[in-house]
Amino acid sequence: MLRKVRTLVKFVIRLIQQRKPQTGNSGFSLIEMMIVVAIMGLIMGIIGLNVTKRFDESRVNSTKIQIKQLGVILQDFRRVCGFYPTTEQGLDALIKAPAGRECKNYDPEGFLSSKKLPKDAWGNDFAYMSDGNKFTIKSLGSDAAEGGTGVSADINSDDLE
To answer: What is the CATH number of domain 51-161?
Structure first.
């Protein structure tokens, strides 16, 4: 694609160089201006695709980092309480003391300073599953549905280790 752009630029330069000077007018013709605008559009299109791709990759990486951070916080919860919150208690146990199985040393401030659960890079809640001994945190990706490929693929805490 870049080779085609270079060829097109060379063509435009040759056109400009071969132009016969007109009487007192040294401006560009409409065709020359249209060719330059087309080349600029091509270059912007290529750059735009690369920026979009990098933006999507950064969202995936950001979500992976959030899952790892939640994993560290859950390990701290287990250190203090002796168990991971169950699926029913969910990640809400990091904000307020969980109901059911009681944690005697639970910090009244909770384990998250923000007092709200983080969301993945696409604004969706994380799925949390646990039996109290082991946990899995999952983001459903950009499509917010099970499965998928690329940016739409699920991101699972088990796959990050």
So the answer is: 3.30.700.10
